[in-house]
Amino acid sequence: MSKKANTFRTPIGTRDLMPSDSARWEAVTNVFTGVASRAGFSLVDTPIFEDIGVFSRIGEGTDVVGKEMYEFRDRSDRPMALRPEGTAAVCRAFAQHRPAVPWKVYYRGPYFRYEAPQAGRFRQFHQFGIESIGSDDPDIDVEVIALAWEVLRSVGLQRVLLIVNSMGDQNTRILYQEALRSYLLDNSNEIDEQDRDKVASHPLRVLDSKRSATQAVTNDAPKIGEYLSSEAEQHFDRVKDGLGSLGIPFAIEPKLVRGLDYYTHTTFEFQSSALETAQNTVCGGGRYNGLIEELGGPPTPGIGFGMGIERLLLACDAEESFPAPGSDTQVWLVDVADGRSARDLTHQLRNLGIVADRAFDGRSMRSQMRSADRSGAEIALIIGEQELADQTVAIRMLRDEEAAQTIVPRDEILREVERLLGLDS
Ligand code: ATP
Ligand code: MG
Description:
Layout: H1 21-38, E1 42-43, E2 49-51, H2 52-56, H3 63-66, E3 71-73, E4 79-82, H4 87-97, E5 103-112, E6 124-133, H5 138-154, E7 160-166, H6 170-186, H7 193-201, H8 203-207, H9 212-218, H10 230-245, E8 251-252, E9 264-272, E10 281-287, H11 291-294, E11 302-308, H12 309-318, E12 331-335, H13 340-351, E13 356-358, H14 365-375, E14 379-383, H15 385-390, E15 392-397, E16 406-409, H16 413-420
Parallel strand pairs: 1-5, 7-8, 12-13, 12-14
Antiparallel strand pairs: 2-4, 3-4, 5-6, 6-11, 7-9, 9-10, 10-11, 14-15, 15-16
Helix pairs in contact: 1-5, 5-10
The structure holds adenosine-5'-triphosphate (ATP) and magnesium ion (MG).
């Protein structure tokens, strides 16, 4: 009786990160951590699942919480959720540990949303993010936006547009919500059916809709800018002034209220004009002056952003920027004697910090040389029966076709490799 093996594939909406995509992923991560740490931000890493209450605070009527969240009960029947976003979890950590302010942190990792998968939309996706907690100085808004801009520029993106808006304070929100609700109710016949049920309960959500019938109505809706208090207006003016001063181009989008409930004052998005419009938001963020209190902490203002790594790299693909880094192999060991020299020399070279590799299984000279060429290494060290008997090593410079092969005594080979790689100074 033959038993057929099961074949398994990645769950829908998830991906394996394979070489050489993984090398590019590491490189873009280094760009992000470099930008964040140069600005005084430190890494914070929170669990991938949390008490579901941490996330329900971000907006009961939102798709993120209402439709997309991975909810489960653990074996002790505790309600849990896989984290759908970063800010609430970081604010939970702040409320729990009460670190000194300003608390400037960055994070990166997987997030989970049960969405319809398509290009740039996954069920497990990854974000870089930063949060700057403890002050409502509008210059922090400018700093946070400038850091996102810096990341996008560092990976070579040109076709990104920054849009900003102000949500004002809680009072603005309440006043505006009322005005918007009555406008939308008056025009509800023209709103796409799928958005209609949100009009009464969550009118701000309707502004977020990507459906064209709804957008036609919301284009003429009252604008939140008309409801800002003078304090909120001052805050927003200072942000616009700062962006101008830093030379960061932006457009004001009065409909940018963003999907989550916690935003106050500044909201912003970076969109790539090189991507399909349904998935063109590379980075989104804003100020959330009420969230930490909601999560049981002291009233503390904060602002941050989340940047989708998959989207960022898709935008890079579309603009043909930030290619995967090349191989970093420096030395390849070709051993057609008994393999011992390759075994020992790779170990010794690696101890010196040199990237060294080899083939196994006693392959032919031709096959090993082919591997050496493919590896991208600059130097091949070759040991045949003759070299083994003479206690020597032959050196071939793989990138220089003119260079003759040289023979070096075995006990000088490490020093010679360092010299050839310019590591001896
Ligand atoms: P969208 O409007 O595209 O659904 P969003 O407003 O739901 O985005 P945020 O909650 O602001 O997204 O998340 C921050 C960033 O994370 C987004 O700008 C995007 O780059 C990325 N992102 C969000 N959801 C996904 C997903 N399902 N797959 C891949 N990236 C995502
Ligand atoms: Mg979304």
